[in-house]
What we know:
Layout (H helix, E strand, L loop, with lengths): L5 E6 L4 E7 L9 H75 L6
Antiparallel strand pairs: 1-2
Amino acid sequence: MYVGIVRSKLDQLQRCFQVQFAAGRDLRPGQLGSMIHTLSNWLSTSDNLLITIQDKIKWADTMSELDKKHKKEAEERMEEVKKTLSLKKSQTMSRQTLTFEALRRCSPNQVE
């Protein structure tokens, strides 16, 4: 079908086909330098893209850590506010109870 594309030996004892030479069909003689240049450019672009992706991953990891830290701080502040409000509520309730008890003592004729 294509003469001269493959040069080889058939080893019948080892039952194998030993390739000595194979010609690429995509490149004509003299085009190898251009292909090497194109592939080198592609490799350089791929390396730069990989570096950019790695930088973006580092940035995303940093932002994620900052977000977690901020969320934890906000939750801690919220808990502090809840405790403060709970304490104020219990103090208010205690004052109301004391006031109610004082009123009961002052008016002995009050019906319960």
